Amino acid sequence: MSKWVNTVVAGLALAVVGSSVVAFEGVGRKATPDEVKAWDIDVRPDFKGLPKGSGSVAKGMEVWEAKCASCHGVFGESTDVFTPIAGGTSKEDMKTGRVANLAREDFPQRTTMMKVATVSTLWDYINRAMPWTNPKTLTVEEVYASVAYILNLADMVPEDFVLSDKNIAEVQAKLPNRNGMTTDHGLWDLKGKPDVKNVACMKDCKPEVKVTSFLPGSAVDSHGNLVEQNRPIGPARGLDTNKKQ
Question: Cα–Cα distance between 123 and 125 in angstroms, integer?
Fold first, then answer.
């Protein structure tokens, strides 16, 4: 009986596999150019995907103070929530494309402008993820302006500068850490050995290990009620610090 059942099941499996192409043929339709465009929003280092537009440093200051300063500080110096945006770079770094302070172990902080290697990263991240409490709500002009304001904080552009799709490549040529990106690590160099090795347990395995994190009681409500500060998208929700733990 068992052998017969196994044979039938195997036969059904082959039938499903063999007919899978036919079964799904004609289901759905090809996405239209406008539908693809709605999802294809990334901006690449060569600025492919960057929308046409512009934004001034002055406009960026308005946007920053209204929508960014609460987390990042009025001048990008940050609050007690996030690390600083600007600082740690020099005019010499703009010439060499490498930030000297990154090599100093005694330097107190790694700012965004010390680490980022492409202006497109700033544009793309702000466009996708900011403001923290209401992502994807900035207009194209506001994104350009916000990036322009950050560049001004880093002394890369003057106060009357207007960033646009026409001149962003010129700004990239002055980015302090533009030559600091490396692909000499495991994520890119697949010829090397992996950093870690693990063998999957198939028999008599120990109970599953669960990794969790927690806030110490003395700091659990230091920043207010965390559940009210989360983004309105995604599955993650912050701890309700109003409740007794």
Answer: 6
How do the domains of the chain map onto residue ranges?
40-172
pLDDT tens-digit series, residues 92-114: 999 999 999 999 888 888 899 99
Are 130 and 138 in contact, with CB atoms under 8 Å apart? yes
Instruction: Give the residue-averaged pLDDT of 31-51.
Output: 87
Element (H, E) at 164: strand 162-164
pLDDT > 90: percent of the chain: 45
Which fold is adopted by the domain 40-172? Cytochrome Bc1 Complex; Chain D, domain 2 (1.10.760)
Interatomic CA distance for residues 195 and 176, integer angstroms: 30
Residues 42-59 pLDDT 10s: 899 999 999 999 999 999
169 token code pair: 């490549």
CB 137 within 8 A of CB 231: no
Expressed in percent and rounded to 5, the helix, strand and coil fractions of the chain are 40, 0, 60
Q: Would residue 218 be called left, alpha or beta, if left means φ above 0 and alpha means ψ between -120 and 50 degrees? A: alpha
The answer to whether residues 124 and 146 touch, using CB atoms and an 8 Å cutoff, is: no
Structure tokens at 4: 């017969």
On average, the pLDDT of the chain sits at 81
d(CA 190, CA 16): 37
pTM of the model: 0.66
